[in-house]
């Protein structure tokens, strides 16, 4: 009996016979289930289908697996931890690894971003940061500062806080009136002024000044925080215009508004630095992270807070809970073990510096796709690239969907799309030959979906 159930489990991993039960997230389920894109194994730069066909990972999974897949040190750290301490509550109890993981993360963050609140995902991180911002003003005696400012085309996960400050219409329009009291800065993309820019576009810093308009409309005394992704990721990789983030920081400082960087994608080396905050020389009040913190191996996210935020909460009486917020799995031992092992790899292999070193070569490789049929813009930043395709006659998003399908089945390439924008962001261990393979396949794919 035990033998046959073990056999069934192995078969299920390779070839599930029920495709019905799992409702896949952010997926066209009906189409998917007629022609599924399935992976069952991964190593370093490649996924493998159940039939054993390699699929090069052009997207680090979902912008997560920056150290590449199934790295031995991470696997063994998780295994060892599971045998040592499987779970420990983070409410009123602690375990050593969570403190170590927090301080390792804090060491990578700039300035006095010294305190880490753990959760399990980017969505939870965004909602946690927004809640900390509101609670912060409360403990400071300024509880009227409640307004939250996000940005058009921003993505901060799928919690109600995140979709409220987020700026993607499909993520908002089905879900009622969302949270009250949110405003949005304009997005920073303008093809006319920015087309085919490598790195940060020259045009657009002035778009940060729209925050002054929002302040004039509502008064700074009602505004708690501004949250932006340093590079908007989910709507097709929009690098920040030169000087834009600095300007945002200046306006927030001027009006006593907290600034949150959502670094769920940009954190842990994607832009060649531990955090984009370092690349841009801008210190936000909080940084949210997830994904690559442990190379996507165990769900983990968090918020890194500056000293003044943490201290505001610690100035109350003893024996009183300071922040009524947290998750059962905050600081989960397996996630922490995976985090420490991953940060060791990032450090030992100099993966952030390495990304800086290959950024120009990557940008040139991406730009070589210019001129292919229907390509209307290409953007690059760090080890991220995006190609905008003109929509086909069947409507927006159809060409992008075809790219996902054909990319996987015909070319063995995993990528991301946002409507008709293709985004690629390979693991930071990518060598020249991998970059060549991705660009070659992408080029052929773009011709194919023309
Ligand atoms: N913020 C940003 C900037 C993201 O890119 C994402 C996920 N792509 C999230 C938040 C949400 O993360 P999760 O899917 O882990 O909830």
TrEMBL record:
<dbReference type="InterPro" id="IPR005814">
    <property type="entry name" value="Aminotrans_3"/>
</dbReference>
<dbReference type="InterPro" id="IPR015421">
    <property type="entry name" value="PyrdxlP-dep_Trfase_major"/>
</dbReference>
<dbReference type="GO" id="GO:0008483">
    <property type="term" value="F:transaminase activity"/>
</dbReference>
<keyword id="KW-0808">Transferase</keyword>
<dbReference type="InterPro" id="IPR015424">
    <property type="entry name" value="PyrdxlP-dep_Trfase"/>
</dbReference>
<dbReference type="InterPro" id="IPR015422">
    <property type="entry name" value="PyrdxlP-dep_Trfase_small"/>
</dbReference>
<keyword id="KW-0032">Aminotransferase</keyword>
<keyword id="KW-0670">Pyruvate</keyword>
<dbReference type="InterPro" id="IPR049704">
    <property type="entry name" value="Aminotrans_3_PPA_site"/>
</dbReference>
<protein>
    <submittedName>
        <fullName>Beta-alanine--pyruvate transaminase</fullName>
    </submittedName>
</protein>
<dbReference type="Pfam" id="PF00202">
    <property type="entry name" value="Aminotran_3"/>
</dbReference>
<keyword id="KW-0663">Pyridoxal phosphate</keyword>
<comment type="similarity">
    <text>Belongs to the class-III pyridoxal-phosphate-dependent aminotransferase family.</text>
</comment>
<dbReference type="GO" id="GO:0030170">
    <property type="term" value="F:pyridoxal phosphate binding"/>
</dbReference>
């Amino acid at each position: 009996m035990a033998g046959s159930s073990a056999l069934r489990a192995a078969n299920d991993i390779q070839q599930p016979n029920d495709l019905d039960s799992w409702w896949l997230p952010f997926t066209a389920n009906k189409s998917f289930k007629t022609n599924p894109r399935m992976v069952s194994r991964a190593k370093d730069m490649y996924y493998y289908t159940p039939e054993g066909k390699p699929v090069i990972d052009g997207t680090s999974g979902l912008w997560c697996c920056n150290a590449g897949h199934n790295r031995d040190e991470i696997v063994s750290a998780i295994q060892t931890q599971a045998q040592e301490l499987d779970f420990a509550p983070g409410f009123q109890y602690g375990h050593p690894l969570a403190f170590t993981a927090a301080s390792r993360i804090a060491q990578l963050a700039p300035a006095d971003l010294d305190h880490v609140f753990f959760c399990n995902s980017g969505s939870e991180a965004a909602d946690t940061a927004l809640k900390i911002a509101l609670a912060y003003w409360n403990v400071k005696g300024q509880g009227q500062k409640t307004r939250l400012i996000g940005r058009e085309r921003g993505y901060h996960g799928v919690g109600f806080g995140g979709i409220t400050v987020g700026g993607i219409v499909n993520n908002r329009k089905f879900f009622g009136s969302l949270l009250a009291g949110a405003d949005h800065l304009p997005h920073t993309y303008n093809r006319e002024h920015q087309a085919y820019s490598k790195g940060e576009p020259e045009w657009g810093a002035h778009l940060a000044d729209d925050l002054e308009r929002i302040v004039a409309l509502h008064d700074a005394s009602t505004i708690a925080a501004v949250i932006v992704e340093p590079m908007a990721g989910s709507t097709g990789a929009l690098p920040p215009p030169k000087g834009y983030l600095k300007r945002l920081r200046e306006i927030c400082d001027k009006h006593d508004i907290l600034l949150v960087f959502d670094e769920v994608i940009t954190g842990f080396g994607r832009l060649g630095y531990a955090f984009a905050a370092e690349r841009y020389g801008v210190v936000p009040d909080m940084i949210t992270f997830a994904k690559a913190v442990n190379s996507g191996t165990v769900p983990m996210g968090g918020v890194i807070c500056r000293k003044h935020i943490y201290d505001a909460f610690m100035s109350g009486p003893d024996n009183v809970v300071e922040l009524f917020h947290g998750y059962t799995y905050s600081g989960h031992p397996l996630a922490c073990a995976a985090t420490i092992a991953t940060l060791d790899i990032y450090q030992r292999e100099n993966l952030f510096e390495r990304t800086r070193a290959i950024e120009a070569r990557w940008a040139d490789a991406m730009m070589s796709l210019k001129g292919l049929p229907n390509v209307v813009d290409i953007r690059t930043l760090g080890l991220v690239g995006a190609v905008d395709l003109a929509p086909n006659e069947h409507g927006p998003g159809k060409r992008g969907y075809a790219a996902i399908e054909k990319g996987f089945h015909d070319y063995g390439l995993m990528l991301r799309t946002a409507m008709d924008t293709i985004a690629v962001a390979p693991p930071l261990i990518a060598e020249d030959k991998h970059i060549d393979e991705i660009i070659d396949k992408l080029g052929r794919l773009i011709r194919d979906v023309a």
